[in-house]
Inverse folding.
């Protein structure tokens, strides 16, 4: 009886912790670029608005070649979220030939280095709950490679990433890049996602760092899922980046003016999970309404424009 009583108490304690964790929602990163800017510019009249509208919202932390020891960096981030009983959102963004030489060009030198890096990343997450977005744009940009061998290597690295998270971070919900609603035809994207290991992932991610409306993204996701079902016999949940889609897209992708922050990170609605993946205020590159701000750098001017929608 004593053993049963002790087990019952332990079960109740575990349930209470789990409920508290689930109820707390997603992690608000106190060291996001807008949060760091607000802390160091408290006298700036823009700081309270940026704090209220952006830095207080759960959003993703991106990890790449700037992260140093990625195992330590990821573990530190996930540890802090775990201590707050919240679920972190992470982006792995370091695949070779990242962004195909565009504004966010970079990534690791070769496939071997990437496999080592993604293994370290996944072990940093460990057994904790997390949402992980794997390599934004990586499937949509397959067309930039000239040979089948190059495309096959990219897809093989994505499959490897999914398999490492499955092995080393079994509690993480992993979403493979799926481009956006107006980039790659849905049937083509379905085939690419399947080749990238989506059958073993939680699902796929859409609209990362883009501006298309949530409805456009959901419609596209439904078409991708119809193609996945027809071609491969399964469908998947999906994430939509809502960080800057409050006014939809005007066709531009690089710091376009008159865009707006979108719906805040929330829980899933059916198959869709709306989250902030791109950090609002971080530049897309030295272009558009921020011609001198490099990709990934935070600009309070960009942030306020997104708050105001102008």
């Amino acid at each position: 009886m004593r053993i049963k009583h002790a087990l019952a108490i332990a079960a109740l304690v575990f349930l209470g912790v789990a409920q508290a964790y689930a109820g707390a929602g997603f992690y608000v990163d106190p060291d996001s670029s807008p949060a760091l800017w607000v802390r160091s510019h408290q006298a700036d009249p823009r700081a309270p608005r940026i704090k209220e509208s952006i830095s207080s919202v759960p959003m993703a932390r991106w990890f790449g070649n700037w992260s140093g020891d990625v195992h330590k960096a990821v573990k530190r981030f996930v540890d802090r979220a775990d201590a707050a009983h919240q679920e972190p959102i992470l982006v792995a963004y370091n695949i070779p030939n990242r962004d195909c030489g565009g504004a966010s060009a970079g990534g690791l030198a070769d496939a071997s280095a990437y496999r080592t890096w993604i293994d370290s990343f996944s072990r940093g997450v460990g057994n904790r709950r997390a949402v992980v977005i794997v390599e934004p744009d990586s499937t949509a940009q397959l067309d930039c490679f000239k040979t089948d061998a190059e495309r096959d290597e990219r897809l093989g690295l994505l499959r490897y990433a999914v398999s490492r998270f499955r092995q080393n971070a079994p509690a993480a919900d992993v979403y493979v890049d799926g481009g956006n609603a107006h980039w790659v035809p849905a049937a083509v994207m379905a085939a690419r996602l399947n080749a990238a290991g989506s059958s073993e992932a939680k699902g796929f991610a859409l609209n990362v760092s883009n501006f298309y409306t949530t409805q456009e993204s959901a419609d596209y996701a439904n078409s991708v899922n119809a193609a996945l079902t027809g071609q491969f016999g399964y469908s998947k949940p999906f994430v939509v980046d809502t960080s800057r889609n409050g006014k939809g897209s005007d066709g531009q992708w690089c710091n376009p003016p008159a865009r707006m922050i979108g719906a805040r990170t929330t829980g899933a609605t059916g198959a869709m999970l709306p989250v902030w993946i791109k950090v609002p205020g971080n530049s897309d590159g030295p272009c558009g309404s921020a011609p001198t701000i490099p990709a990934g750098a935070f600009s309070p001017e960009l942030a306020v424009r997104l708050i105001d929608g102008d």
